[in-house]
Amino acid sequence: MKIKTFFFIVCIFFASPMQASNDQARLLEVYKNLRCLVCQGQSIADSNSDFAATIKLVVQDQFNEGKTEDEIYKFLISKYGEWIVYQPTLNKNNFLLWAIPYAALFFGGFVTLLVLRGAKNNKVN
Amino acid sequence: MKISISKIIIFIFVIFSLSVFWNGLKINNNYDTKSLIGNRISNFELIKIDDSDKFITEEDLKQNNYTLINFFASWCGPCRNEHNYLLNLSKKNTKIKIIGINFKDRKINAINFLKELGNPYNFVGADKDGKISILFGIYGIPESVLIDRDLTVIKKIVGPIDQFQYNEILNLIK
Description:
The complex is a heterodimer. Chain A is mainly α. Helices cover 70% and strands 0% of the residues of chain A. Chain A has 4 helices and no strands. Chain A has helices at 2-32, 50-64, 69-80, 95-124. Chain B is α/β, with parallel strands linked by helices. The radius of gyration of chain B is 22 Å and the shape is elongated. The N and C termini of chain B lie far apart (69 Å). The chains are: A mainly alpha, B alpha/beta. The interface between A and B is medium-sized, with 22 and 22 residues.
């Protein structure tokens, strides 16, 4: 019984700081994906500006209310547009942005195949 | 002359890339929050600057034909420049109510600011930590948001109100 109580106390002792550090890590990830709109090339995580401080407060509040990362991003996008997030969500306006890398990869593979085939045919002839 | 398929594909790809870059150059890269126009304001509650028992909510804003929500601070230089336009608007137009939101400021400084320049506001609230400003997509002050009775944003002014913006507000609330 004593051993059980001991383990229980140890678990409680370690669990809450671990949970806190997990939350901090998740918050930091959100800050890193948010652009500081009044800074030159800095994220909210990097910036000490007034604007960044306010955004951090709002994100922290929403996080404490139990909102997910996506819900927080959605809220901020509704107020500041897609520009506030570094990783924009897929929509009809930025479809090409997402599709072009895959298209380029496919196209590159196709061209390489054609070139290799051409080289092989030349060798045979 | 024999044209291979790969050459046609490369040609199409080059033309496509150039057209993307060309269109990209023509896009205006100046950031603003005009995308907020047409959105509805929600979850709004503002505590009066000199009396924390009094506050207004979105239900109060629904009573006005138009509401201009102006973010200001005593430490903000451009806020002084736009102040006369706000005073004119409050004196000459009964259709519009002006709500002042004092942004990250000391209460005493804000009260002195209004004593010195005049008070154009029907209600002055405090946004001490700036959280309310996020609801309105504010990223610097002064900024103003014009909303109608349905709490829909019909105009957003980034920076101080000038003669042009003043006329535009008058046109919108005719």
